[in-house]
Amino acid sequence: MAIQALHSASTGMNALSTEIDVISNNLANVNTTGFKASRVNFEDLIYQQKRQPGVENGAGTAAPAGLQVGMGTKISNTQFDFSPGSPVVTGRPLDVYIEGDGFFEVEILGEFGGGTGYARAGNFFVNKDGDLVLGNAQGPRVPGVTISGDVQTIEISQSGEISITRPDNSITSAGNLQLNKFVNPAGLQSIGGNIYVETEISGPPTSGEPGQQGFGTLAQGQLESSNVNPVTELVSLIKTQRAFEMNSQTIQAADEVLQVVGNLRRF
Fold first, then answer.
1. 245, 257, 264, 244: which is closest to 2 by C-alpha?
2. Is 259 exposed, middle or buried (0-12, 13-18, 19+ CB in 10 A)?
3. In what helix (H) or strand (E) does residue 73 lie, and over which residues does it extend?
4. What value, to the nearest 5°, has the Cα angle with vertex 190 and ends 185 and 195?
């Protein structure tokens, strides 16, 4: 009966609607520094087993295939694409690009949940207390780095050491930028503001200096652009929209079939 078709098509429309939401978020963040695109992974639902494969028929021979009807689809998960975005040269001394793997560490403010966050975006500022902070709306502090007093120039090496040149040409260290890696970065949870937090399935972070084995190096005066490919996203959006329309047509067809069945008693 076409009732199962109604259910299968509705699961498809529900899942595809979520995919449109994800694509929309990707396109909305095409200019967000360090943004990582997400993709939607699908999986099929349980199958109604009307005849098992290999069941013997009346002639004593095994059927070469069974009769199975699926119940639709659902979304397995959304998956971050952590491939690096292209570097954008800004020339600003507190813009830092990670050439390779790794995340900057920031201290999330208490009113936003507290704890430690991790970011690919390297657009830093210095707040009124001389702390190095991430340039998002909350301004979380980067631990271990303080830039105070009169500063003439700021130099950030590939290994993360921050050196300050004073007006009298004396050079002092303001701290070091550390990078962090995760065994399963796909398990990180995004909390907005270009920040991720660790979860049980991401595993704990492994910290290291930029340039160490497995960690990227830093490039001052550059920013990591969003890794969203607008052309790819637009093609995905059109395909998803068409698939959504096809599922709606399936519902219309199933409804017409049920109307025919309902009118049988009138003939």
1. 257
2. exposed
3. strand 73-80
4. 95
